[in-house]
User: What shape does this take?
Amino acid sequence: MPENKSQGEQTGMGIMQFFANLFDANELAPISRKLTDEQILLACQAEFPGRKIWEDFSDGSTKSKRYTVNTYRIKYNNGIMTRGVPPVRKSYRYDNRGRKVDPRYGMTPLLPEEVTHFNKLHSVSRIKKLDAHMKELGRG
Assistant: This one.
């Protein structure tokens, strides 16, 4: 086990970097190997076993918990995990057949035009957040 408790067991990465790497790798994976949010959560729990954060985590199928994989996906897609640098590939939620599904509940496969709309929303959101942050720092 790494000396630093915030480092992963196998990779030595921090949890944010581990999530970011999983999201990126999942987008590169073939359809037959896409991970669901449940599988992503299990991979994170295996890499960071016994951490208190998992008590407040949900796989996204219920609203009873504070955090979900989608919470981290939003941070990733908006560049928060990568110090304001947006990812090259947006992360999507996938079902067990490798189809892109609605980000909130993961039940409904997305149509191509919905994927386009999703990308536009995230792009606008990310730009507005970055602009607001830069203004706070007196750089905008």
